[in-house]
Design brief:
three-stranded antiparallel β-sheet; alpha+beta; Immunoglobulin-like; four-stranded mixed β-sheet; 2 helices
């Protein structure tokens, strides 16, 4: 506003100076005026000049460019999700499908050899305080060939792995298979826990050719059997092929 007023005052001064210079030129010319000229209204001239100057300033301000508006980013279009028709999907060929079981669910079993009896924990075969562990076969190994009707004695080396003594009336008891006319005597002695002894039974081979197996276990005076099973297995040969 101060600059505007200053410029208006300068314009007024210029107009006044111009009017005074004109008056001086007319008065110095020496020629009488033909007609009486009207008196110049200095205030009207100054007012008209100021109006012209203000109009010029208004047009100048209107011509200036307006501030550019801040551009607003256009919204990002949201992708359209189309529904999938499950019926149009092609199923996998069953021949190419594979199933993998976790390692924790795979069960590994040890191979079983034909003719090999399963291993039994001797400690689970006890009866009360009595138990027996088979150490080895002493006579007549499995598969020994016998003549029909041949008599023989089968002997086993065993250990008392129970917690009480084997006493005099303990004896071998036939439990399954082919008896082969076996009759076992009483133990006739005392075997303390942790000690071993030999148990024997007299047998007779059957008269017909074939393979025969008999199973025996040690029993107490009440007839209760315990411990590992003692097995005898022989092959009875044909009389014509027996040496």
């Amino acid at each position: 506003m101060r600059m505007f007023r200053k410029e208006v005052m300068q314009i007024k001064r210029k107009i006044v100076l111009a009017l005074l210079a004109g008056v001086l030129l007319v008065s110095c010319s020496g020629q009488p005026p033909a007609t009486e000229e009207p008196t110049v209204d200095v205030n009207a001239v100054m007012t008209a000049g100021v109006g012209t100057f203000v109009a010029g300033l208004t047009q100048t301000q209107a011509a200036q460019p307006t501030a550019t508006a801040t551009s607003t980013p256009s919204p990002t279009p949201t992708p359209t999700v189309s529904a999938v028709n499950l019926g149009s999907l092609t199923p996998l060929t069953t021949s190419t499908q594979s199933f993998v079981l976790p390692l924790s669910t795979v069960i590994f079993s040890a191979p079983t050899v034909a003719g090999t009896p399963p291993t039994v924990n001797p400690s689970t075969l006890g009866s009360g305080c009595n138990n027996l562990r088979l150490i080895s076969d002493v006579t007549v190994s499995a598969g020994t060939v016998m003549a029909p009707g041949q008599e023989f004695t089968k002997t086993w080396k065993v250990e008392n792995n129970g917690t009480c003594d084997w006493v005099f009336l303990y004896r071998l008891v036939f439990v399954s298979g082919e008896r082969m006319e076996g009759v076992a005597p009483n133990l006739g002695k005392v075997i303390t826990p942790g000690k071993w002894t030999q148990l024997s039974v007299g047998l007779k081979a059957p008269s017909k050719p074939g393979t025969y197996t008999g199973n025996w276990r040690l029993g107490n005076q009440a007839g209760s059997v315990f411990g590992s099973t003692l097995t005898v297995s022989i092959v009875v040969a044909n009389p014509t092929s027996y040496p």
